[in-house]
Design a protein that fits this description.
The chain is of the alpha/beta class and 110 residues long. The chain has one domain: 3-Layer(aba) Sandwich (Oxidized Rhodanese, domain 1), CATH 3.40.250.10. The protein has 5 helices and 5 strands. It has helices spanning 9-12, 28-33, 51-54, 72-83, 95-102; strands spanning 2-5, 21-24, 42-45, 64-67, 89-93. It has a 5-stranded parallel sheet. The longest helix has 12 residues, at 72-83. It starts with a strand and ends in an 8-residue tail after the last helix.
């Protein structure tokens, strides 16, 4: 599992394949408060607490970039997905908070 700094996500996009997934593992209220959509990525929202029951919803052949508020929960989910045998899993370092600060200040901080 690799870390991708928020300000390098767009530059890393070509190396992630044709259909990369941005896996948002935050809770429903967090996604409603500060939604994240990144051009070139399909966003899938599965809260961390439901990932074990819903991991099969993730495409088998896509790179997965996990994101949460600060990058801690997403790191745990990324490790879990690797234990399931996923080989192209990444963690968005710093999470949505770092995204708000360094990339898109229009995304609310909380």
């Amino acid at each position: 599992m690799q870390q991708i700094p928020v300000d390098q996500l767009q530059a890393a996009r070509p190396q992630l394949g044709e259909a990369p997934v941005l896996l948002d593992v935050r809770e429903d209220w967090e996604v409603q408060l500060a939604p994240l959509a990144v051009e070139g990525f399909t966003t899938v929202h599965i809260p961390m607490g439901r990932i074990t029951a819903r991991a099969e919803e993730l495409p088998e052949d896509s790179s997965i970039v996990c994101v949460c508020h600060h990058g801690v929960r997403s790191l745990q989910v990324a490790h879990y997905l690797e234990r399931l045998g996923r080989v192209s899993v990444f963690n968005l370092q710093g999470g949505i908070d770092a995204w708000s600060v360094r990339v898109d200040p229009a995304v609310p901080r909380y």
